[in-house]
Specification:
This protein has 150 residues and is α+β, with helices and mostly antiparallel strands. Helices cover 23% and strands 25% of the residues. The mean pLDDT is 94.
Length: 150
């Protein structure tokens, strides 16, 4: 995967995995996100290793993250997108999405998917639409509360 770095005001967006703060990412996903609450750090580490990752940084401190699960040829799934609450309202999520959509390894894909409970307006600005007409074509196995210890 091609290394990309883009600046936005005082922020850097980079696909360089060596810059990622895995502990920070884990803490956010585990404690702040609704979609990955309780996720073990080992799972976060493995997901990063197997994805195209985008870190958002301010003065070398990580303040956001997103990852694409992709074969780089036909399909990609956008996951774990977040901007730290202290840095929201500055256009960072829009700039992050722009960098993701323009990444050379994500061009010409047949399909790009994501799931969101609360950010439809953001993703619609970048061409994402509800499945509606294709919904009957999709099936899933959904593991509810997979990170909760039983």
């Amino acid at each position: 995967m091609q290394l990309i770095e883009a600046t936005y005001s005082d922020f850097l967006i980079s696909t360089d995995k060596s810059k990622l703060d895995v502990i920070y990412i884990h803490q956010y996903l585990n404690r702040e996100s609704y979609w990955a609450a309780g996720i073990p750090i080992e799972i976060v580490t493995k997901s990063i290793a197997n994805s195209l990752c985008f870190g958002v940084y301010h003065e070398k401190q990580q303040v956001g993250f997103a990852r694409m699960i992709t074969d780089g040829a036909t399909f990609a799934y956008l996951a774990d997108v977040f901007i730290d609450e202290k840095y929201r309202g500055q256009g960072l999520s829009k700039r992050l999405m722009q960098v993701i959509k323009e990444h050379p390894d994500l061009q010409g894909l047949r399909r790009m998917l994501l799931a969101t409970r609360d950010a439809h307006g953001l993703y619609a600005q970048f061409g994402f639409t509800p499945l509606l007409s294709d919904a009957d074509n999709f099936m899933q196995i959904k593991a509810v509360d997979v990170y909760k210890k039983g």
